[in-house]
Design goal:
Oligomer: heterodimer
Mean pLDDT of chain B: 93
Helix content of chain B: 25-40%
Strand content of chain A: under 5%
Low-confidence stretches of chain A: 1-5, 11-15
Structural class of chain B: alpha+beta
Largest sheet of chain A: none
Distance between the termini of chain A: 28 Å
Number of strands of chain A: 0
Helix content of chain A: 40-55%
Largest interface: A-B, 35 and 42 residues
Number of helices of chain A: 3
Low-confidence stretches of chain B: none
Largest sheet of chain B: 6 strands, antiparallel, barrel
Mean pLDDT of chain A: 79
Number of strands of chain B: 13
Number of helices of chain B: 12
Order of helices and strands of chain B: HEEEEHEHHEHEHHHHHEEEEEEHH
Radius of gyration of chain B: 24 Å
Structural class of chain A: mainly alpha
């Protein structure tokens, strides 16, 4: 289920809460890695260490997370 | 895949913050000067065109729909006016209306302007047409799946623009073009100006009647293709001058970063890259700067120039890029120094010279483009690089 497009963006209440549409997209992208969307969020935030085989994945997520900080 | 993961990191951040996250540091579009925003709904006789210049709002429908643009004074004036639209489809539908306009109709001049907009819209970097949905997606990432970023309503919601009509498009256009413009993009406005002057002179020359709807001859088509290709190549090159874009592209290999591990001789350099992704092919002309991708200098000559000699993977799975013909400003790089490399920046002056040469060659009597018999098609092997480039584009 996606968010109605004419509504303002949702305000998640906690780090583990992602809008369902983006969580589903993340899980499609992470298919085969054994990671859930919340794991991706924790990896991106630097709250979780990735196993060595997923080091590149975690690096890309973290770089994206920290890129463009406070620029709008 | 890594670029998609980088984007996912940005999406997750945008979703968590509940606001857009910057995809680039500079505005990726030229600020529109005296723009006209258009929305188009319905089809056929029911097509409704709504237009605003930021002061007045007009609308018209059916076969006279283009009169809404004429009411705002749009025509073959000395200066072009940029068009702001919700998406590329709107321009296609405007073009249908323009093509159906009678040559003697009061809106014939407006129809011609639509023809010019359509022509310029195929030139990336041009400021003639601002497709706000595409421009917003170039500037920000949202906390939604990528497919949702193709919807105008999503952008209006995330950027908190209340006006759902053409006025809202102007507001989005202002927001997306705010701040410093991508360096090197301003000359694109000059190209728009030159193209407009040529178009107006042609359309208004009573001695040589010309219909903008007429198909290009072979020479015009060939030169038009060269111009569009040059514009795309230049815009892509300019975008790599944006620190955030360069950072993202480092995950796809269009930009590479690493540490100098050897200086085997004069004009030679070996860089051990951070990642295995590298799209720089053998013999590709490259330029570079000290530091990480985000440290891209915005002005001046490149710090390093060279060509890719070879690439190899070491037993510990590191990618090493060997460079030849290396020239470095302010002395050779030292071992251990971090450098970032990218394809050599496209020079718009060289592009122009090349197009002038094409123009000269296409006009030559011996050229089949200027009227000779068309060449018979020949089949031959396509170089692997061409196949890869086609697959990537």
């Amino acid at each position: 289920m996606s968010r109605p497009t004419d509504q303002p963006p949702p305000e998640p209440s906690g780090p583990a809460e992602l809008p369902r549409a983006v969580a589903e997209y993340a899980e499609q992208l992470l298919l085969g890695t054994g990671l859930a969307a919340t794991d991706a969020l924790r990896l991106a935030r630097g709250d979780m260490d990735a196993p060595p085989e997923l080091g590149g994945l975690a690096e890309a997520l973290r770089a994206g997370w920290s890129a463009g900080e406070d620029r709008r | 895949m890594s670029v998609a993961l980088f984007d996912l990191g940005q999406r997750l951040r945008a979703a968590t913050l509940g606001r857009p996250v910057a995809r680039c540091s500079f505005a990726p579009v030229l600020p529109p000067v005296d723009p006209i925003a258009v929305t188009l709904s319905g089809a056929g006789e029911g097509a409704l065109v709504r237009v605003t210049d930021g002061v007045r709002l007009t609308s018209a429908s059916g076969s006279t729909a283009l009169s809404a643009l004429a009411e705002l004074g749009l025509g073959l004036a000395p200066e072009p006016r940029p068009l702001v639209i919700p998406n590329r489809g709107t321009l296609g539908r405007l073009l249908e209306l323009a093509r159906a306009t009678d040559r003697d109709a009061p809106t014939a001049a407006v129809a011609a302007v639509v023809g010019w907009w359509e022509q310029r819209a195929a030139h990336p970097g041009s400021g003639a047409v601002l497709d706000v949905t595409t421009a917003c997606a170039a500037r920000w990432v949202l906390g939604v799946p990528p497919a949702d970023e193709r919807q105008l309503a999503v952008w209006l919601g995330w950027l908190e623009v209340a006006d759902r009509g053409p006025g809202g498009l102007l507001e989005l256009a202002d927001r997306v073009a705010a701040g410093p413009t991508l360096p090197g993009l301003e000359p694109c406005a000059e190209q728009d100006g030159a193209s407009w002057a040529y178009f107006v002179a042609r359309a208004t020359d009573a001695s040589k009647p010309w219909d903008w709807r007429a198909r290009d001859n072979r020479r015009e088509a060939a030169l038009g293709l060269a111009t569009r290709c040059d514009a795309a190549e230049l815009y892509e090159s300019l975008c790599l001058g944006d620190p955030l874009v360069a950072t993202r592209e480092a995950f796809g290999g269009a930009v590479v970063s690493g540490v100098v591990t050897a200086v085997p001789g004069q004009g030679l350099l070996e860089v051990t890259l951070d990642r295995l992704a590298c799209r720089l092919r053998e013999d590709a002309a490259v330029e570079g700067y000290p530091g990480h991708p985000r440290d891209v200098p915005t002005t001046g000559q490149p710090w390093l120039r060279g060509r890719v000699a070879a690439t190899r993977v070491t037993p510990d799975e590191r990618l090493v890029l060997s460079l030849k013909d290396v020239l470095v400003r302010s002395g050779p790089p030292r071992r251990g120094q971090r450098v970032t490399l990218r394809p050599r920046a496209v020079d718009p002056h060289q592009q122009r010279s090349r197009r002038q040469e094409l123009h000269r060659r296409y006009a030559a009597r011996r050229s089949w483009l200027s009227g000779g018999a068309p060449r018979a098609p020949r089949r031959r092997d396509v170089p692997l690089d061409v196949v890869i480039a086609a697959a990537e584009s």
